[in-house]
Protein backbone atom coordinates (compact mmCIF):
# COMPACT_ATOMS: atom_id res chain seq x y z
CA UNK A 1 0.00 0.00 0.00
CA UNK A 2 1.21 3.45 -0.86
CA UNK A 3 1.89 5.91 1.94
CA UNK A 4 -0.68 8.67 2.40
CA UNK A 5 0.50 12.13 1.39
CA UNK A 6 -0.97 15.63 1.55
CA UNK A 7 1.17 18.07 -0.40
CA UNK A 8 0.66 21.82 -0.58
CA UNK A 9 1.65 23.87 -3.58
CA UNK A 10 2.15 27.51 -2.73
CA UNK A 11 2.87 28.47 -6.38
CA UNK A 12 4.07 32.11 -6.59
CA UNK A 13 2.98 32.97 -3.08
CA UNK A 14 5.04 33.34 0.06
CA UNK A 15 7.33 35.90 1.69
CA UNK A 16 9.28 35.85 4.92
CA UNK A 17 6.23 37.38 6.58
CA UNK A 18 4.33 34.15 5.78
CA UNK A 19 6.67 31.91 7.77
CA UNK A 20 4.29 31.79 10.78
CA UNK A 21 1.72 30.12 8.49
CA UNK A 22 4.28 27.47 7.52
CA UNK A 23 5.05 26.96 11.20
CA UNK A 24 1.33 26.53 11.93
CA UNK A 25 0.94 23.97 9.12
CA UNK A 26 4.00 22.10 10.41
CA UNK A 27 2.49 21.87 13.87
CA UNK A 28 -0.71 20.42 12.34
CA UNK A 29 1.51 17.89 10.55
CA UNK A 30 3.18 16.82 13.77
CA UNK A 31 -0.02 15.12 14.93
CA UNK A 32 -0.93 13.72 11.49
CA UNK A 33 -0.59 10.06 10.61
CA UNK A 34 0.02 10.92 6.96
CA UNK A 35 3.00 12.51 5.27
CA UNK A 36 2.62 16.29 4.95
CA UNK A 37 4.69 18.24 2.52
CA UNK A 38 4.72 21.90 1.53
CA UNK A 39 6.16 22.99 -1.83
CA UNK A 40 7.17 26.64 -1.76
CA UNK A 41 9.04 29.12 -3.96
CA UNK A 42 12.80 28.47 -4.09
CA UNK A 43 13.46 31.74 -2.22
CA UNK A 44 11.58 30.42 0.80
CA UNK A 45 12.86 26.83 0.99
CA UNK A 46 15.70 27.33 3.44
CA UNK A 47 13.64 29.46 5.84
CA UNK A 48 10.64 27.14 5.48
CA UNK A 49 12.79 24.16 6.45
CA UNK A 50 13.95 26.03 9.53
CA UNK A 51 10.44 26.71 10.81
CA UNK A 52 8.96 23.36 9.67
CA UNK A 53 11.45 21.30 11.66
CA UNK A 54 11.28 17.51 11.37
CA UNK A 55 7.46 17.22 11.15
CA UNK A 56 6.92 18.46 7.63
CA UNK A 57 8.92 18.06 4.44
CA UNK A 58 9.58 21.06 2.22
CA UNK A 59 9.69 20.83 -1.57
CA UNK A 60 10.41 22.99 -4.58
CA UNK A 61 7.98 23.67 -7.44
CA UNK A 62 10.20 23.08 -10.48
CA UNK A 63 13.82 22.45 -11.40
CA UNK A 64 16.01 22.67 -14.47
CA UNK A 65 17.00 19.50 -16.36
CA UNK A 66 20.72 20.29 -15.81
CA UNK A 67 22.57 20.28 -12.51
CA UNK A 68 24.38 23.54 -13.30
CA UNK A 69 25.40 25.73 -16.20
CA UNK A 70 24.77 28.95 -18.10
CA UNK A 71 21.00 29.16 -17.54
CA UNK A 72 20.32 32.56 -16.04
CA UNK A 73 17.50 32.59 -13.53
CA UNK A 74 17.07 28.82 -13.37
CA UNK A 75 17.27 26.62 -10.28
CA UNK A 76 18.62 23.06 -10.39
CA UNK A 77 17.51 20.04 -8.40
CA UNK A 78 20.88 20.06 -6.65
CA UNK A 79 20.22 23.66 -5.54
CA UNK A 80 16.79 22.76 -4.17
CA UNK A 81 18.30 19.84 -2.27
CA UNK A 82 21.11 22.07 -1.02
CA UNK A 83 18.51 24.53 0.33
CA UNK A 84 16.85 21.70 2.25
CA UNK A 85 14.11 20.48 -0.11
CA UNK A 86 13.36 16.77 -0.20
CA UNK A 87 10.74 16.87 -2.98
CA UNK A 88 10.01 18.81 -6.14
CA UNK A 89 6.83 19.25 -8.20
CA UNK A 90 7.49 18.65 -11.90
CA UNK A 91 5.27 18.96 -14.96
CA UNK A 92 2.60 21.03 -13.23
CA UNK A 93 0.07 22.14 -15.84
CA UNK A 94 0.95 25.79 -15.19
CA UNK A 95 4.56 24.97 -16.18
CA UNK A 96 3.39 22.90 -19.15
CA UNK A 97 1.12 25.77 -20.33
CA UNK A 98 3.22 28.83 -19.42
CA UNK A 99 6.64 27.43 -20.33
CA UNK A 100 5.87 24.97 -23.10
CA UNK A 101 7.04 22.00 -21.04
CA UNK A 102 6.49 18.80 -23.01
CA UNK A 103 6.42 15.30 -21.54
CA UNK A 104 10.01 14.88 -22.81
CA UNK A 105 11.19 17.98 -20.93
CA UNK A 106 9.33 16.86 -17.82
CA UNK A 107 11.07 13.47 -18.05
CA UNK A 108 14.47 15.20 -18.24
CA UNK A 109 13.58 17.26 -15.17
CA UNK A 110 12.44 14.16 -13.29
CA UNK A 111 15.76 12.51 -14.13
CA UNK A 112 17.65 15.57 -12.85
CA UNK A 113 15.58 15.68 -9.67
CA UNK A 114 16.18 12.00 -8.93
CA UNK A 115 19.87 12.48 -9.64
CA UNK A 116 19.86 15.25 -7.00
CA UNK A 117 18.31 12.86 -4.48
CA UNK A 118 14.86 14.48 -4.54
CA UNK A 119 11.48 12.75 -4.69
CA UNK A 120 9.69 13.85 -7.87
CA UNK A 121 5.98 14.72 -7.75
CA UNK A 122 5.03 14.25 -11.39
CA UNK A 123 1.85 16.09 -12.41
CA UNK A 124 -0.42 15.14 -15.27
CA UNK A 125 -3.99 15.79 -16.32
CA UNK A 126 -6.27 16.54 -19.22
CA UNK A 127 -7.60 19.89 -20.45
CA UNK A 128 -11.35 20.51 -20.63
CA UNK A 129 -11.40 20.01 -24.40
CA UNK A 130 -9.56 16.70 -24.02
CA UNK A 131 -12.12 15.58 -21.41
CA UNK A 132 -15.02 16.71 -23.59
CA UNK A 133 -13.51 14.75 -26.48
CA UNK A 134 -13.43 11.59 -24.34
CA UNK A 135 -9.62 11.55 -24.45
CA UNK A 136 -8.88 11.76 -20.70
CA UNK A 137 -7.55 8.24 -20.21
CA UNK A 138 -5.43 8.25 -23.34
CA UNK A 139 -3.97 11.69 -22.47
CA UNK A 140 -3.04 10.83 -18.88
CA UNK A 141 -1.79 7.40 -19.95
CA UNK A 142 0.50 8.98 -22.51
CA UNK A 143 1.71 11.61 -20.03
CA UNK A 144 2.46 8.91 -17.45
CA UNK A 145 4.57 6.88 -19.86
CA UNK A 146 6.38 9.84 -21.41
CA UNK A 147 6.97 12.00 -18.30
CA UNK A 148 8.82 9.31 -16.35
CA UNK A 149 12.42 8.68 -17.47
CA UNK A 150 13.42 5.13 -18.32
CA UNK A 151 15.73 4.60 -15.35
CA UNK A 152 13.40 6.08 -12.68
CA UNK A 153 12.89 4.05 -9.50
CA UNK A 154 9.26 3.75 -8.41
CA UNK A 155 10.08 4.51 -4.79
CA UNK A 156 11.32 8.01 -5.69
CA UNK A 157 8.07 9.00 -7.42
CA UNK A 158 4.73 10.51 -6.46
CA UNK A 159 2.12 10.94 -9.21
CA UNK A 160 -0.45 13.75 -9.05
CA UNK A 161 -3.53 13.61 -11.28
CA UNK A 162 -4.62 17.20 -11.77
CA UNK A 163 -7.28 17.91 -14.40
CA UNK A 164 -6.24 21.28 -15.84
CA UNK A 165 -9.83 22.56 -15.76
CA UNK A 166 -10.17 21.78 -12.05
CA UNK A 167 -7.12 23.77 -10.92
CA UNK A 168 -8.07 26.98 -9.14
CA UNK A 169 -11.61 26.87 -10.54
CA UNK A 170 -13.64 25.37 -7.70
CA UNK A 171 -14.74 22.63 -10.11
CA UNK A 172 -13.81 18.99 -9.64
CA UNK A 173 -14.49 15.82 -11.59
CA UNK A 174 -17.11 13.49 -10.11
CA UNK A 175 -15.80 10.92 -7.66
CA UNK A 176 -16.41 8.24 -10.32
CA UNK A 177 -14.31 10.18 -12.82
CA UNK A 178 -11.45 10.58 -10.32
CA UNK A 179 -11.60 6.87 -9.43
CA UNK A 180 -11.58 5.90 -13.12
CA UNK A 181 -8.45 7.93 -13.85
CA UNK A 182 -6.64 6.72 -10.73
CA UNK A 183 -7.36 3.07 -11.59
CA UNK A 184 -6.02 3.73 -15.10
CA UNK A 185 -2.85 5.35 -13.71
CA UNK A 186 -2.30 2.50 -11.24
CA UNK A 187 -2.57 0.02 -14.10
CA UNK A 188 -0.10 2.10 -16.11
CA UNK A 189 2.34 2.13 -13.20
CA UNK A 190 1.93 -1.65 -12.85
CA UNK A 191 2.83 -2.14 -16.51
CA UNK A 192 5.89 0.00 -15.96
CA UNK A 193 7.15 -1.15 -12.56
CA UNK A 194 5.24 -4.37 -11.85
CA UNK A 195 2.18 -4.54 -9.58
CA UNK A 196 4.02 -4.60 -6.25
CA UNK A 197 6.14 -1.51 -6.77
CA UNK A 198 3.24 0.25 -8.52
CA UNK A 199 1.02 -0.26 -5.48
CA UNK A 200 3.51 1.66 -3.34
CA UNK A 201 3.60 4.81 -5.51
CA UNK A 202 1.40 7.51 -3.90
CA UNK A 203 -1.26 8.63 -6.40
CA UNK A 204 -2.54 12.08 -5.45
CA UNK A 205 -5.56 13.93 -6.75
CA UNK A 206 -5.20 17.70 -7.27
CA UNK A 207 -7.55 20.46 -8.44
CA UNK A 208 -9.82 22.44 -6.10
CA UNK A 209 -9.37 20.13 -3.12
CA UNK A 210 -11.02 21.92 -0.18
CA UNK A 211 -12.01 21.01 3.39
CA UNK A 212 -15.56 20.23 2.19
CA UNK A 213 -14.64 17.72 -0.55
CA UNK A 214 -11.39 16.18 0.73
CA UNK A 215 -12.93 13.30 2.69
CA UNK A 216 -15.04 12.10 -0.26
CA UNK A 217 -11.99 12.19 -2.55
CA UNK A 218 -9.75 10.41 -0.02
CA UNK A 219 -12.34 7.64 0.36
CA UNK A 220 -11.88 6.63 -3.30
CA UNK A 221 -9.87 3.55 -4.24
CA UNK A 222 -6.36 4.30 -5.52
CA UNK A 223 -6.40 7.84 -4.09
CA UNK A 224 -3.51 8.17 -1.66
CA UNK A 225 -3.80 11.87 -0.91
CA UNK A 226 -3.91 15.28 -2.53
CA UNK A 227 -1.88 18.03 -4.09
CA UNK A 228 -3.49 21.22 -2.82
CA UNK A 229 -3.00 24.72 -4.22
CA UNK A 230 -5.17 27.55 -2.90
CA UNK A 231 -6.35 25.75 0.24
CA UNK A 232 -2.75 25.07 1.32
CA UNK A 233 -2.06 28.78 1.80
CA UNK A 234 -4.10 29.01 4.98
CA UNK A 235 -3.68 26.57 7.89
CA UNK A 236 -7.40 27.01 8.62
CA UNK A 237 -8.20 25.31 5.29
CA UNK A 238 -5.18 23.02 5.02
CA UNK A 239 -5.55 21.58 8.54
CA UNK A 240 -8.94 19.93 7.92
CA UNK A 241 -7.65 18.48 4.64
CA UNK A 242 -4.74 16.87 6.51
CA UNK A 243 -7.20 15.57 9.12
CA UNK A 244 -9.52 14.21 6.41
CA UNK A 245 -6.74 11.97 5.16
CA UNK A 246 -5.88 10.87 8.66
CA UNK A 247 -9.07 11.08 10.69
CA UNK A 248 -7.56 9.78 13.96
P1 LIG B 1 -5.89 24.30 -6.49
O1 LIG B 1 -4.46 23.99 -7.19
O2 LIG B 1 -5.98 23.41 -5.28
O3 LIG B 1 -5.81 25.77 -6.14
O4 LIG B 1 -6.92 24.00 -7.50
C1 LIG B 1 -3.97 22.68 -7.26
C2 LIG B 1 -2.61 22.69 -7.94
O5 LIG B 1 -2.42 23.46 -8.89
O6 LIG B 1 -1.72 21.91 -7.56
Structure, briefly:
The protein is 42% helix and 15% strand. It has 248 residues and is an alpha/beta fold.
Features:
248 residues, alpha/beta, 11 helices, binds 2-phosphoglycolic acid
Explain this structure.
The protein has about 250 residues and is of the alpha/beta class. It contains 11 helices and 8 strands. Strand 7, helix 10 (about 215-220) and strand 8 form a beta-alpha-beta unit. Helix 7 (about 135-145) packs parallel to helix 8. The longest helix is centred in the last third of the chain and has 19 residues, at about 175-195. Bound molecules: 2-phosphoglycolic acid (PGA). 2-phosphoglycolic acid (PGA) binds near residues 9, 162, 168, 230 and 231.
Low confidence ranges: none
The 3D shape can be described as globular
The Rg value, from CA coordinates, equals 17 Å
Number of strands: 8
Percent helix range: 40-55%
Ligand inventory reads: 2-phosphoglycolic acid
In oligomeric terms, what are we looking at?
single chain
The largest beta-sheet arranges its strands as 1-2-3-4-5-6-7-8
SSE-based structural type:
alpha/beta
Q: What letter string, H or E per element, gives the SSE order?
A: EHEHEHEHHEHHEHHEHEH
Provide the residue-averaged pLDDT.
96
Discrete helix count: 11
Write the layout of secondary structure elements.
Layout: E1 5-9, H1 19-30, E2 35-39, H2 45-52, E3 57-60, H3 77-83, E4 87-90, H4 93-98, H5 103-115, E5 119-124, H6 128-132, H7 136-147, E6 157-161, H8 175-193, H9 195-199, E7 203-206, H10 214-218, E8 225-228, H11 235-245
Parallel strand pairs: 1-2, 1-8, 2-3, 3-4, 4-5, 5-6, 6-7, 7-8
The structure holds 2-phosphoglycolic acid.
